[in-house]
Amino acid sequence: MTPAPPAGSLDAMTSSAGAPARIRIGSAPDSWGVWFPDDPRQVPWQRFLDEVSAAGYEWIELGPYGYLPTDPARLSDETRRRGLSVSAGTVFTGLHHGPDVWERTWAHVAGIAALTRAMGAGHLVVIPSFWRDDRTGEVLEDRDLTAEQWRHLTTQTERLGREVRDRFGLRVVVHPHADTHIDTEENVSRFLDATDPDLVSLCLDTGHYAYCGGDSVELIETYGERIGYLHLKQVDPAVLAQVVADEVPFGPAVARGVMCEPPGGVPALEPVLAAARALDVDLFAVVEQDMYPCPPDKPLPIARRTREFLRSCGGPGRPDTPTGPEK
Questions:
Q1: How many structural domains does the chain have?
Q2: Most exposed: 26, 110, 169, 181, by fewest CB within 10 Å?
Q3: pLDDT digits (tens, 9 = 90+) for 54-87
């Protein structure tokens, strides 16, 4: 019997096999202003879990490793009693530096992948390293990769995808991100064209892709088979124009409010979700409104409004009436 869609699942078409393809909506610590494992300006992890559940979400990401408890038994208890399940973990990598960084990278990835798998999730979101510091703006390296660095990036990411799949049963989804080397339409296409689709999929972040000048709907329609995961966010076009003109680094740009509450920015999320539904595959779509730092009382009302807005984006017909999380 086909399980009932979980809360937060948007209505989707029926696949050729007869099972309903779903877009499952979740949220993440990022939407509560959490960027670091420990920072006095961030809400405590207990408050995040309480509020994300109160806002009506049933799926979360782990966020920065160490923010939530890293003991699987404790984290399972804390999430279960709030009706929450984990969709993915997140790692940062600098694989364009080549084989010399592999051992250090794997030591970082393995612990996060183990916790992600223990929590029953199936995805590992991989974010490339920044070419300039996201808080200070210090330029760390050239913003353009050499041909050799591109080869390192693609081959080492494939290696990561293979190892994570074989050892932990997780699917690597690479996240194009502002101020990294996988950012613009040109760089995203180059990366996808050079990597094995059996090993590397994409986490399309609608806000970051718009921030870097890309069209999310066009990307989904062009590389649909590579879309393995979604992050939903919007950018304020007026703030973005000033950020680009002033060459503001990503962290200070966020502090200026470049990422905004839907539906007040770009891209429009209705056509993005419609294009995603047309792929006829199950997808997670995790809300991530970058707000670091932010007042502690700001995230919850935004999270509630965003969830209701996204439920209104179900396309023809109404979203499914939820009956509980899929386990």
A1: 1
A2: 169
A3: 999 999 999 999 999 999 999 999 999 999 999 9
The alpha carbon torsion through 209, 214, 219, 221 (nearest 10 deg) reads: 130
The phi, psi pair for 29, rounded to 5°, reads: -55, -30
Task: State residue 19's pLDDT score.
Answer: 57
Which neighbouring-strand residues pair with 287? 27, 232
pLDDT at 21: 73
Task: Determine the Cα–Cα distance for residues 308 and 305; give it in Å rounded to an integer.
Answer: 5
- Provide the terminal-to-terminal Cα distance of the chain, rounded to the nearest Å: 14
CA 141 to chain centre: 25
DSSP string spanning 50-119?
Answer: HHHHHTT--EEE--STTSS---HHHHHHHHHTTT-EEEEEEEEE-GGG-GGGHHHHHHHHHHHHHHHHHT
**Domain span at residue 227?**
19-311
Each residue's pLDDT tens digit, 78-110: 999 999 999 999 999 999 999 999 999 999 999
Whether 41 maps to a domain, the answer reads yes
CA dihedral (166, 168, 173, 178) in degrees, to 10, reads -120
Distance in angstroms (rounded) separating the CA atoms of residues 214 and 8: 27
Retrieve residue 225's tokens.
Answer: 């088979």
Strands 9-10 and 23-27: antiparallel
Q: Is position 320 within any domain?
A: no
Measured CA distances, 47 to 37, 52, 63, 82 (Å): 14, 8, 14, 11
User: Model pTM?
Assistant: 0.91
What's 206's domain CATH number? 3.20.20.150
User: What is d(CA 325, CA 9) in angstroms, rounded to the nearest whole number?
Assistant: 9
